[in-house]
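ok here's the first one, seq then struct tokens
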Amino acid sequence: MSAPTPPDGRSDPRYGAPHHGGQQYGPQYGPPSGQQQPPPGYGPPPGYGPPPGYGPPTGPGQQRPYGPPYGAQPPPFSQQIYGQQYGQQQAGPNPLIPPGFGGVPLPAGIPAPVERAFRLWLGIIAVNVLGVVVTTIGVGDYVSGVGIVFALIGAAIGVFLALHFRGQRQWARLVLTVLTGLAMLSSLIALFGALVLLAFAPVYGVVQLAVSVVFLAGGTLALINAWNAQSNAWFGKLGL
């Protein structure tokens, strides 16, 4: 016995399938064949699937504009996450490494006054260490050894600053200027002490006198070359 048909020809959920080709349909049967629509929320979430560039080509003889070729293995998951989120950042050179060392290139066009000041500072440092060693040699006690150690540490710091000065570091020029001024003041005081020392210990007096004169003369020339017009133009505006 067939199901009864509604009198108006429309579909009724109680009677089953639509009648006389009607477009309406009962909710228990679903949409007609050929007009199936997935319900809302059905299917994979957005962004699901392989990243762009993976998978087979879209047509014969077509070249994919981006991504690895078909069949290539994608990078590991951790590299995808961290590479996309943080990027591939390359560390710059260490600012403590003086230019000319450790792969840090020297700046181009170093002016002659800057190069002269650099060599004068190296000469002053070497003379100061030599003077400390000569004046303390033969004493043989603990205090003299400590003095030599401190002289070597100070020389290492001075060379470090001089190398950065030649590398166009404004902060190195400022620090060297302050330290040179203090050392020249100390050498001026030591100069008068050396004159007195000549009467009691001529050898040490002569060494101290020579070191003081070299430091005063060399420091003055180094500061003049480091702060003349050509050097100021090369270093640029005063700052770190």
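and now the second one, same deal
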Amino acid sequence: MLDERLGTLLLALAREAIVSQLGQSAIKKPDTQALSRPGACFITLKRQGALRGCMGSLEAHQSLAEDIIHNAVAAALHDPRFPPVSIEELGETTIEVSVLTAPEPVTVANEAELLAMLRPGVDGVTLRCGCRQATFLPQVWEQLPAPTAFIQQLKRKAGWSADFWSPDMIVTRYQVQKFTEPPLR
């Protein structure tokens, strides 16, 4: 568990990474042991309450600090759903950092078993089959509170039909600890 003080550092690092990439300043990495350990995160950007970018890592493959820097820049400049964030826009954009637990494999024989074991509002879920995969962070439960709708939309995100299921489906779940900048005035 990370405390609020560290959460504030994570948010500042994410914002600094974006500002630095936009050529406005140099990045200063905080020297904190918790940030030097391997970690996985997602960075979500919102402008006026609407999604403006979201990119992340499902598994730890570098230090948490490096993952935050990489994913903050990716969310701001490389999310294919949006044009790059400008420095002017950044002042109107709030940042959310979600630090993920290690993914936990879930063994289910079918979608009904998956729906029965889900914990709405708690679990992030990844579905993988063949070369396709998709994930929803636990925060997505706020928009899709019914497990059936949550899984159907997750399958659509992966490019499958809402009723798709395969015996080769690989399911993992994870939780997040999220930190969000205060709303802009």
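notes on #2: The longest strand covers residues 40-47. The helical segments are 4-21, 33-36, 64-77, 87-90, 111-117, 147-158.
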